[in-house]
Amino acid sequence: MNSVLVASNRGPVSFTLSEDGVLTMRRGGGGLVSGLADVAGEIDLLWVCAALSDGDRSAVRLAPGGRLDQAGYDTGALRMLDIPPAVFHRAYNAVANSTLWFVNHMLYNTPQVPHFDIRFRREWGSYRDYNAAFALALAEEAGPGARVLVQDYHLTLTPSMLRGERPDVRIAHFSHTPWAPPEYFSLLPEDVGAEVLSGILGADHAGFLTERWASAFMDCCEAVLGARVDRAARTVTHEGRTTRIGVHALGVDGDKLWARACEPDVESHMAALRERIGDAKLVVRIDRTELSKNIVRGLAAYREFLATHPEWHGRVVHLAFAYPSRHDLPEYREYTAAVQRSAQEIEDEYATEDWDPLILNVQDDYPRSLAAYRLADVLLVNPIRDGMNLVAKEGPVLSPRSALVLSREAGAAAELGRDALLVNPYDVSGTAEAIHQALIMPEKERIERGERLRAAATALPPTAWFAEQLAALTS
Ligand code: G6P
């Protein structure tokens, strides 16, 4: 039994099984994993996650009770849940990623989707089963009075389910995405929306990345559940229980990130990139190819910038990293193809014998993207809507003299908005002009803004963010 438990769909490691039956473990990235690695030695921690691949499932079957503590994994103890693949697929792809994620990001193309029919009801049933599997495992593993930190939109029902099983434990839920206002949230069937909200309200503490998402959540609780909301005290009372609402603006660990970005593999990518682009200015973007990242409009903005500012031809290169994501969903495959088409159009229109205006990278390559950050003159982060966007926070740490063009709809804009060039993500012309302004920003101004951006980006590194979650359950 453990006294601190973390639950998330994706765990800190993944396993692959080779043809000759050898299991290999790979540690994932992300703020939560690196934050926990720093504190794992000090707390009695268990991480509960889902087995996502055949390799993960093999690892679970080899481990008694799915506990992978002995598997060479060093960030506390780990338990992977082997959820039947069909249930997992409906819960993860159909409900979490195609429904709740779309609602939170307000991304539906409403004339065609969503479509809440009998099939959705089956998928919703699987989402419940998947959440129940987490609640059950947490109930089994939590020591008396343990603190349990449940992560994200995959696990909105787990807090109330766990509360039903184990009234003694203290539960926090954290949303890493935006939250939609009630007018949009209520496109979910009424009972489904109510179940999501009361599921999260099973927690003692519900955390969000910004004030804006926290207050949208409170508005939904009031409008959909008729819950009593005290905005000054930041509490929601529903069915006799009170949940505290917190804002914890996750940032980056500047020293750690900088140290990683100074390693030889990054330096050699820097040398290769420098050689390829010569002394041209560099506009960089780094995203997973998620529908919310607005990569196609970002490329359109770069194209319009080239059209309206021919003086830059031959003197600027756009380096765009667009890593494939969620290719099980057709919308994502189509989006990746659209990004590639847009890039090709720019090449066709502007490339010359000795100038490549755009380099698109669709292979996941962490050291190469760190090298790009370090060389950037401009970092473009223009999501339609984003919980936080850590790229906007990593940039100022790694390239103190680059200018940041940032969507006003990214959570990070709340902290970085004063020193970034803020854009409306739908306004392609406005974004094109911001790219130009960023390129011509005087050196002194870039450095001054960069210093303030860096301070804001590193204000709450993952370890401190995690400590805040735990502290919220102690009081
Ligand atoms: C997006 C969301 C995060 C979420 C993540 C999961 O980035 O904004 O809140 O945790 O996706 O990604 P995955 O690859 O595990 O589906």
UniProtKB/TrEMBL annotation:
What this protein is called in its record is: Trehalose 6-phosphate synthase
A GO-annotated cellular component: cytosol
Select a single GO molecular function from the record's annotations and give it. trehalose-phosphatase activity
What top-level branch of life does the organism fall under? Bacteria
The family database entries (CDD domains) matched by this protein are listed as: GT20_TPS (cd03788)
Family listed: Belongs to the glycosyltransferase 20 family.
Under Pfam families, the record lists: Glyco_transf_20 (PF00982)
Organism equals Thermostaphylospora chromogena
Q: Which PANTHER family match?
A: BCDNA.GH08860, TREHALOSE-6-PHOSPHATE SYNTHASE
Q: Which Gene3D superfamilies match?
A: Glycogen Phosphorylase B (3.40.50.2000)
Q: Name a single GO biological process.
A: trehalose biosynthetic process
Q: Which InterPro entries match?
A: Glyco_trans_20 (IPR001830)
